[in-house]
Amino acid sequence: MLRSSRGFTTVEFLSAALCGTIVLFALYGFYREQLFSLLLEESRTSTLEDARGALDIMARELRNAGLFPMPTDTTCVKDDSGKPLRVVSASSTSIQIQTDTQSPSPTSDDPDGKCTATGESVTYAIGSGTDACPGPMNIKRNGYCLVANVVVSSKEPLFTYFDSNDTPFGGNPAVADVKRVRIRFSVEVPDPTPRGKSLGKTIKSTLSSSVEFRNS
Q: Which of 19, 36, 186, 205 could, after both became Cys, cross-link 151 (CB 3.0–4.6 A)?
């Protein structure tokens, strides 16, 4: 009995190889796009986490502004009547607040009638980018970098102030009349994907929060 000795032809081998190559290229393209998407989201998430942490710090300290439990506060900046100011200075790009929440003593957290302990007199301001704190701008806390890669719109300043009727102030407000402050800024970093780099794309996220001052 004769048995067929016929195997695969060259054309069949080439066809199989072509089909396999097409499948591999399709899988590679899918994997590549997923990898770039993951890289993009990781960069966005990391940037947002830093910015949200900074915004939380700013909002928490602003809420404490004006807390003066002692009858007299000897080192705090005061108004003409001798009352300590919760907001010392305010503009669209900076704000200085003060409070009396703790003693300078490391063993005591009791208010001491002064505004000299760490965290009791705080200034937030926009600064220029540096090697240590990159980006076109940054937000500094008492002169130190709080968040980098900051972008602030000319139409939406870093700080917007409102009076007791929730009416926004135009220009620099009278600090004694400030009831609420809105914080708004964006963080922008380069797109880390090869396509984004070649096109000069960026990842931009905008954050905002509003703080109503106590004792006002």
A: 186
